[in-house]
Amino acid sequence: MTIQSLIDLPEDYTKVLLRIRDYGEEDVVGLAERLDMNQARLAHIIKALKHKGLILVSSATYEDACIRLSVKGQKLTNYLNPNDTRTPMYIQLLWYG
């Protein structure tokens, strides 16, 4: 069965996913510093990406959390172009289930 999904990712969301894809598991505080992003903004992005099933968070507390891509997130980032992070980014994917 094929399910077609439309995923809308703003520029900041895309940057977070690409950073995790390129450098592996990240801690939240370090990720905010490396992306030069406000920690409150990053917390919002993490919550949204987790809700979309694109990332996995290893801890319940923000300060101790490590983030990695889920299988769905890994598949999605294969379609992302790191040189094209316009807002918004629309990606049409076929998910097989």
CATH fold topology: Arc Repressor Mutant, subunit A
Low-confidence stretches: 87-97
Q: Could you give the distance between the termini?
A: 6 Å
Number of domains: 1
* Helix count from the secondary structure assignment: 4
CATH superfamily: Winged helix-like DNA-binding domain superfamily/Winged helix DNA-binding domain
Shape: globular
- The helix fraction, in percent, is 40-55%
Q: What's the gyration radius in Å?
A: 13 Å
Please name the CATH architecture: Orthogonal Bundle
Query: Could you tell me the number of beta strands?
Result: 5
Account of the 3D structure:
The structure is a single chain. Helix content is 41%, strand content 26%. The protein has a single domain (2-81), classed as Winged helix-like DNA-binding domain superfamily/Winged helix DNA-binding domain (Arc Repressor Mutant, subunit A, Orthogonal Bundle). It is built from 4 helices and 5 strands, in the order βαβααββαβ. The protein has 97 residues and is of the alpha+beta class.
